[in-house]
Amino acid sequence: MSCISWAEFLCGPVGVEDVELAGRVVQDPIAVLGADAVLTPRLFNLTGRRRGSLTDCMIAATAIRTGAPLASADPADFRRFEPAGLTIVAA
After folding, report:
1. CATH label of the domain that carries residue 50
2. DSSP one-letter code for 6
3. What are phi and psi of 9, to 5 degrees?
4. How many domains, in total, are found in the chain?
5. Which residues make beta-bridge pairs with 89?
6. Cβ atoms 86, 65 nearer than 8 A
7. Which one, out of 79, 83, 84, 91, has a CA that is 20 to 30 A from the CA of 43?
8. Cβ contact 74:56 at 8 Å
9. Which residues pair with 70 in a beta bridge?
10. Residue 72 main-chain phi, psi, to 5 deg
11. What pLDDT is stored for residue 72 in this prediction?
12. Left, alpha or beta for 31 (phi > 0: left; psi -120 to 50: alpha)?
């Protein structure tokens, strides 16, 4: 899980028990690197510069860089990044 996704999760709404359980599963969130900062605006521009989508672009960039599939309860939010190399696993 990227640190961006982890931060979104922690913004909730989640209970203390949910945070404790997730913390046991997500030991060390993946940091955003300079390469992600370069790919993020590319994704943003390629997908129509949608207001409010920068965070999704950051999450997608981190997943693409690491080659990790992205699991989401809302996979439709990320389908637009598939042509850039994102693999999606629906929750």
Report:
1. 3.40.50.1010
2. H
3. -60, -45
4. 1
5. 71
6. no
7. 91
8. no
9. 88
10. -150, 145
11. 87
12. beta
Rounded to whole angstroms, the Cα distance separating 29 from 83 reads 25
Looking at residue 77, the DSSP 8-state letter turns out to be: G
Structure tokens at 54: 């920068």
Q: Which residue has the higher pLDDT, 74 or 90?
A: 74
- pLDDT digit string, tens, across residues 56-85: 999 999 999 999 999 988 899 999 999 999
Residue 69: cis peptide before it, omega within 30 degrees of 0 = no
Structure tokens at 47: 């997908």
Please name the residue ranges forming H helices in the chain. Answer: 3-10, 16-25, 34-46, 54-66
User: What span, in angstroms and rounded, lies between the C-alpha atoms of 53 and 86?
Assistant: 15
Q: Containing domain of residue 33, as a range?
A: 3-90
pLDDT(91) > 70: no
Q: Please give the structure tokens belonging to residue 3.
A: 């640190």
pLDDT digits (tens, 9 = 90+) for 14-24: 999 999 999 99
Structure tokens given for 72: 């989401």
